[in-house]
Amino acid sequence: MYNLDEIGQKAKAAEASIRTLGCGVKNQALEAVASELIDRSAEILAANVMDIEHARNSGMKEGLVDRLLLTEDRIRAMAEGLTQIAGLDDPIGEVLSMKQRPNGLLIGKKRVPLGVIGIIYESRPNVTADAFGLCFKTGNVVILKGGSDAINSNKAIVKVIRQALEATGLAADAIQLIEDTNRETAAGFMRMNQYIDVLIPRGGAGLIKAVVENSNIPVIETGTGNCHIFVDETADFGMALDIIYNAKTQRIGVCNACESLVIHEKIADRFMPLLAAKLAEKNVEIRGDKKAMAAEPSVTEATEEDWGMEYLDYIISAKTVSGIDEAISHINRYNTKHSEAIITSDYANSQRFLNEIDAAAVYVNASTRFTDGFEFGFGAEIGISTQKLHARGPMGLEALTTTKFIIYGNGQIRK
Amino acid sequence: MYNLDEIGQKAKAAEASIRTLGCGVKNQALEAVASELIDRSAEILAANVMDIEHARNSGMKEGLVDRLLLTEDRIRAMAEGLTQIAGLDDPIGEVLSMKQRPNGLLIGKKRVPLGVIGIIYESRPNVTADAFGLCFKTGNVVILKGGSDAINSNKAIVKVIRQALEATGLAADAIQLIEDTNRETAAGFMRMNQYIDVLIPRGGAGLIKAVVENSNIPVIETGTGNCHIFVDETADFGMALDIIYNAKTQRIGVCNACESLVIHEKIADRFMPLLAAKLAEKNVEIRGDKKAMAAEPSVTEATEEDWGMEYLDYIISAKTVSGIDEAISHINRYNTKHSEAIITSDYANSQRFLNEIDAAAVYVNASTRFTDGFEFGFGAEIGISTQKLHARGPMGLEALTTTKFIIYGNGQIRK
């Protein structure tokens, strides 16, 4: 049995020293880790070769092998990521509000690290350095559990990071990797609430569901996206076509891609043929209801299942509706609470859509593809939360912090 | 088998209409519910008599029976609580920040309801009206699961609230009570993550642990308090004695009462006899380490277990330390992350204590008893969170909200 308690105890022991590091020290350490990753890239690449060979021998598809592959350039990009994180403002220590109570107590809310963060993720080994950088910048200790496919690469990257931290006089246990890849260890990792303050799963729907169902640690759920675009009766057709084309085809495998269209029935006859012609440029299949099919012969018939699908492919569904009410209720029923957009020229409908759609990000006249920590100006992203507690939508550094109340008194007692 | 799915579906169905209610409508409904509770107090009291009889017949202690007991006055207090909630500012709809991105997108963060909130709680039936009021004011639908002891009282209160809501034209399902009191139903309630956005347990350590271990719904943990007061070398003794006396004895059964003292060893000889004399006024037993015992003969010997105890009784532990370093590490090791205080005249130590103690509320020169939503000026409290996600410390109305990003564009697509 892999000793998870020992890992938990080491993380707790490192927590006190990491929590109170000043921003300057943290940035220097991030820079030192970045240099070390580049200096020792040969060592990391050698480990990666083992993962790649193992993957090919077990018949992994080349697309997935590519996700696993490291190169000099990719290691340099990893290092640059850390340098960029070093350049971001440190959210730790900010006092968000401080007010005097009638009894003279001065009560403020101070931004502090979460403590120990657990991250459980799948293939890409670059997540290893990235997750470390974001957690470390915010004064947190991190315990990582990567996928078994990338185990050798992850071990090598974590070794380099730990040694670089030690060389700058900091606790190496600011980052630990769970090296055992069996299922019981993964299950045990999700039950370490005596050591870990927050668990963040990054990966496919199956991984996220397993974590949500089994963890006793508070989880930040990062999720799937069945993102809708509603083309209202008053939409500018050119704008609608450009936005749908962008949201569907600019990158198909991402959670903020558009998967579902909702079309006002009064414009279906005119709009659907234009849409079909535009999406034909990328051979996108449109699956629609009866009215959508009647408006455009290339539309194939959608089943009930299509309304809830996250295709991650060159397929999109199209549902016609009688107006804003039906659009809102349809979207709130089938969406995954990620990103939803309306294309309209109508003021009242734009406001109703913003108010009544239940999702992390709601757009008027823009592509859903903008739901992203970098696009939102956070300078970094640890994931996109589709849950409602703590953080919702793209999560930057602030999502990795909590607050504590600090209270200045001069002898106050409660009457 | 009790039909939890039906309850979940009804809650989801009510969610859309409750989420978008204006503040005026919500306040009127709260006032209407308050009047109805008073008008129909006879009905509620009759139901309460059944619970009280059942409790006495099964040998419940009178102290606990009193927690269960309703009177005209207590129902009036319940109604006044709702009127007070009606008078609070509505946090829903506030846009927390809105900034323009280089591409012209205007991105803001809007405060919105969580959706469906589950609350699982023990005896006191007044929690029923209180929890409804806070959830409803913040546009949330609530599903309540009270203790079996109070089932008749809770049914009567919920019936009155539902009928009052209906009479004002609102969805009665804004509040539902799970009337079945068996354990499988409670366990099933904790696994309703397809319907419930957040689950808040209110009650003893056993209930909270069961929820944390078994829920697949995001939980806000409200917790126990092993609160410390550190009397530093430079403490004003008079202030220290007043604060400790207040924090220990003003109300012994609450989570923000002081349970543990940490005393600088250089002042132990002078301070301990004064402390013992002061606490003797309320017959408080002091359990200390060797140095504390040497300083004051009435101190009994503490065991390792005492350092972590939440007594909720006229008992306090006293540990001597060599200074601020040992005080901080002792407290961070044994505390429950609730409320901790330092009594000091030393600037550097006050700042180190505020920075390095890991707790929801950290005090300089004040009683830990102030950790409370009303004392902090929130005007209401749904509980005190001892976890780090979403809300930490006393939770007012804002803790029952989340945010969504609203984005105004004019045709932006991602490059």
TrEMBL record, chains A, B:
Pfam families: Aldedh. It catalyses: L-glutamate 5-semialdehyde + phosphate + NADP(+) = L-glutamyl 5-phosphate + NADPH + H(+). Its EC number is 1.2.1.41. GO terms for cellular component: cytoplasm. GO terms for molecular function: glutamate-5-semialdehyde dehydrogenase activity; NADP binding. Keywords: Amino-acid biosynthesis, Cytoplasm, NADP, Oxidoreductase, Proline biosynthesis. Residues 5-287 form the Aldehyde dehydrogenase domain. It is found in: Cytoplasm. GO terms for biological process: L-proline biosynthetic process. Pathway: Amino-acid biosynthesis; L-proline biosynthesis; L-glutamate 5-semialdehyde from L-glutamate: step 2/2. Its main location: cytoplasm. PANTHER family: DELTA-1-PYRROLINE-5-CARBOXYLATE SYNTHASE, GLUTAMATE SEMIALDEHYDE DEHYDROGENASE. Catalyzes the NADPH-dependent reduction of L-glutamate 5-phosphate into L-glutamate 5-semialdehyde and phosphate. The product spontaneously undergoes cyclization to form 1-pyrroline-5-carboxylate. Belongs to the gamma-glutamyl phosphate reductase family. This is Gamma-glutamyl phosphate reductase. The lineage of its organism: Bacteria, Bacillati, Bacillota, Clostridia, Lachnospirales.
